[in-house]
Automatic annotation (TrEMBL), chain B:
The lineage of its organism: Bacteria, Bacillati, Actinomycetota, Actinomycetes, Pseudonocardiales. Keywords: ATP-binding, Hydrolase, Nucleotide-binding. SUPFAM superfamilies: Cyclophilin-like (SSF50891), PH0987 N-terminal domain-like (SSF160467). This is Allophanate hydrolase. The keyword Hydrolase applies.
């Protein structure tokens, strides 16, 4: 019996993700990694793994796997049905599988992305120290497809059942903090414009960026027709293209960009964006 | 020079020229706590580990640095073998008013530096291009430029690390058997990093 999980179904999109490959932006390589990193880290802790082990990030559930040997899996993120051989098992708690058992992750009741960790972690080959799939650059494994066999590493610690935790409930409206800069001076009263604006999450959003529909941000007169020479961009950057509709750069963002960045969403506020379904109402709250 | 806040622990340093970017980057290479040090054409992103305000740490590290002096760092040297049979060789020669042989001589005779990367993993923007070869992008970009293509655009030359759309004027291609510009399974994955010294040599 091999320690492996066979993919039977993926839902709309299931990807291998760990904590990514930060620190390679100077080579043109995006950071990538789980968009809701705290949820992946929690799944790994409950499964007895290091927080940095690779798991599976699924959008809108639909992931179905068959265990090649006995192993433990944990599903985190927003509350979602977890079934083992068709029977309810539960999320946010270790679930034991025997060889041949099938585990299925249903659609989350709210939110978007669920995370599945397996004891030993998924051990597909790493690219630049990470097993994450980068949808922009094509680094890491391809998106999962039925028939894929995912090898598991050797567990080093027993699963931790005792601290099973209640799942978070992603809200249908978000207030997102934004640290102004580096190019806030390109906008007319940037703090006031951000605070007064109202947006919803566009269905065009993906791991590269969260696209917002709603208020158009307007540039200061002196910058109306200015072209920005491409400059480095950080994760969480709120970039404002010519349309005036902001895009928040997520983990698979390009390392440079040619539109002004009015502000940056702090790292600890990004997990909530990862769970924002299309249509979620968004306010941007300028800080600092 | 201006320091612009870029998130909680980042600073975007705005500079006057590519040479100043290179000098500032060299001065910050040894700054403790650097998470990311990313040069671009006129800016340098510095992301530090959390702690004292990033702007203060960067300002102190750059205090007294002569940004007009060439950086005194040990650069890695990379030599790339090129077959000069690109589809735009005649176009570049005509635009420069020189022969294609002269284009090859100029391009392979110059010393380049990786100024920054971008566009795709492992794509380096190389400065040091001789003046006659500094030419605009194609009016209509190609939908597919083959991996290993060597092109020029504006003040830069570079090599496409993978097939992609592109508008650079193509002079040639990396010779068969040359090291790949980017191989995610190799360490290091990227052949070119900022600060590296690069030369092209005529292959075959």
């Amino acid at each position: 019996m091999t320690r492996a999980l066979t993919v039977l179904a993926t839902g709309p999109l299931s990807l291998v993700q760990d904590l990514g490959r930060p620190g390679n932006a100077h080579l043109g390589v995006p950071p990538s990694g789980a968009l809701d990193a705290p949820s992946l880290a929690l799944a790994n802790r409950l499964a007895g793994n290091d927080e940095s082990a690779a798991g599976i990030e699924s959008v809108f559930g639909g992931l179905r796997l068959r265990a090649g040997s006995s192993c433990t899996v944990v599903v985190t993120g927003p509350s979602a049905p977890v079934l083992v051989n068709g029977r309810a098992a539960g999320s946010h708690t270790p679930v034991h599988l025997r060889a041949g058992d099938e585990v299925e992750v249903g659609s989350p009741l709210a939110g978007l992305r669920t995370y599945l960790a397996a004891s030993g972690g998924i051990e597909v080959p790493a690219h630049l120290g990470s097993r994450s799939t980068d949808v922009l650059s094509g680094l890491g494994p391809d998106p999962l497809a039925p028939g894929d066999v995912l090898p598991l590493g050797t567990p080093t610690r027993p699963p931790r059942g005792a601290d099973a935790v209640p799942p978070p409930s992603p809200p249908d409206s978000l207030a997102v903090p934004v640290l102004l800069g580096p190019r806030d001076d390109w906008f007319d009263g940037p703090a006031a414009q951000l605070a007064a604006g109202a947006w919803t999450v566009s269905p065009e959003s993906n791991r590269v960026g969260l696209r917002l529909v709603g208020t158009r941000l307007t540039r200061a007169a002196a910058f109306a027709d200015r072209e920005l020479t491409s400059e480095p961009v950080v994760t969480g950057a709120v970039q404002v293209p010519a349309s005036g509709r902001p895009v928040v750069f997520l983990a698979d963002h390009p390392t440079t960009g040619g539109y002004p960045v009015v502000g940056v969403v702090p790292g600890d506020a990004l997990a909530a964006l990862a769970q924002a379904r299309p249509g979620t109402r968004v306010r941007l709250r300028p800080v600092g | 020079m201006r320091l612009l806040r870029c998130g909680a622990d980042g600073v975007l340093v705005e500079l006057g020229s590519q040479a100043e970017v290179a000098a500032a980057r060299a001065a910050l290479l040894t700054l403790p706590g650097v998470v990311d040090l990313v040069p671009a054409a006129r800016t340098l992103l510095v992301v530090l580990t959390p702690g004292a305000p990033a702007a203060t740490r960067v300002r102190e590290a750059l205090d007294g640095v002569d940004l007009t002096a060439a950086p005194a760092v040990d650069a890695r040297s990379v030599v790339l073998p090129v077959v000069y049979d690109g589809p735009d060789l005649d176009l570049v020669a005509d635009a420069a008013g020189i022969s294609t042989d002269e284009v090859v001589r100029l391009h392979s005779g110059a010393a380049y530096t990786v100024a920054f990367t971008g566009f795709a993993p492992g794509f380096g923007y190389l400065t040091g291009l001789p003046e006659p070869l500094r030419q605009p992008r194609l009016d209509t970009p190609r939908t597919r430029v083959p991996e290993g293509s060597v092109g020029v655009a504006g003040e830069f030359t570079g090599v496409y690390p993978r097939p992609s759309p592109g508008g650079w004027r193509l002079l040639g291609r990396l010779a068969d058997g040359a090291d790949a510009l980017f191989d995610p399974t190799r360490t290091p994955a990227a052949l070119l990093a900022p600060g590296d010294a690069v030369r092209f040599e005529v292959a075959g």
